[in-house]
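Lab notebook, bench 4. Still working through the backlog of constructs that have no structural model yet. Next entry is a single chain of 475 residues. Request: give me the structure tokens for it.
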Amino acid sequence: IMKKTFLFIIIFYCSIASLSAQIYTHIECGTEFTLALRSDSTLWTWGYNGNGQLGNSTYTMSDTPIQAVPTQKWIYAASGAVHAIAIAADSTLWAWGLNGNGQLGTGSNSTNTAPTQVSAVRHWRYVSAGQAHTLAILDDGTLWATGDNTYGQLGTGDTISHNSFVQIGTANNWKTVSAGGVFTLALKQDGTLWAWGYNGDGELGTGNTDIFGSPTQIGTATNWAMVSGGFEFSLALKSDGTLWSTGFNGNGQLGISTATTNDSLFTQVGTGSDWSFIAAGSSFGFAIKQNGTLWGWGYNAAGQLGISPTSSSQPIAQAGTDTNWHYISAADGAISGGSVFGLHAAGFKTMANGICTAGADYKGQLGNGTTISLPGGQDYFGCSVGRITTSVMGIVNNPYNIVVYPNPAGNVLHIDGMQTAASFHIINMLGTVVYFGSLQPGDNNISLQTLSPGSYIININNKEGERYKMVITKK
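Model written out:
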């Protein structure tokens, strides 16, 4: 036993030395705050904190990234307008921030300033948050919702709000979900697109402006690959790389032209078929092309598109000239005094160890150490927010006491110290299993050669039902 323990310690320290520098793997913009996940599975937040949305047990804002719950590891997180929801490394669900409509799902309407476990249920896979409602998907493919249901955005077939998660129908083939302001979009495993909730501006893409209280299929296409719900509009990608939009267009957020006419059907944006990522925000949108260039359109008065000049409405245009953009998030919208707030954006580039931010900064939401919005807004992306220069060990507390390295990884991922046989699944950020296999006691090497660069979740299960999850990055 002593020999085995000593060997594990050697492996442990050798693996630390072999790891690459830490990077960011996920980012989400709330209305006036931002949260981000690092490759060591730590969660960082910054910006406005008047409702405890930073998760640091206070109401004090921060204009630089601060760690939420240093003792906890996370695999996914999402921001609503003024609340947040996250999945911990053990697959439990946690929430914090404003809870007046039950959007935290904790069984009460009390605001929480620190991450609070939602229930004893485990095995959560995906979460999304809107203005005051939250959606989540379990590993079994079932869809759950909580919070405000004034416009049927929970999908329960009525307008009764809930402060605990309730299942939406009986389907168990949900793949991903995106909560818009007061509506919801979702994809099933068969590539079909579904929508429900408020539709007064055509954001559901049903061809009318009727409100739908239950999941309703949009068209008959089976090649939808990604959806993103903005405040009053929607963006979607098909597997052929085409970009589509529908809904409110008063600020040009549909990206279809310089026109500002609303649309109630998904209409293709341009003729390109080389889009790979989308993000819909309060009144503006982004997309990343397969060549790594970033493009934005819509409301730009605060410079949130990273495009100059900062006109009030911007047709689709490239932000800068970089060709290594990997992820982008646009601020969620929220209504206050008849105006829609949410005027910043954040993202990161391939293998970057810093966050890029642009737009309004009056609540520290850019995370750059100030609360000063430049004249006319910040009309470029500053990419030094939360910059990391140290190497880290990307290991999560787990029942196996194993070491997973390096992270980021090249073509081979090492898993050392397995005590029993287990199965593993590697899942992309859309919830699709892209690789699976078995692990044997001892040390294992997993080939990542067929995976594209990007972030994934590795899910390991043994026959006793113990589970371990971790975010990994393929270089």
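Notes after review: The helical segments are 2-18. The CA atoms of residues 142 and 171 lie 6 Å apart. Flag for follow-up if needed.
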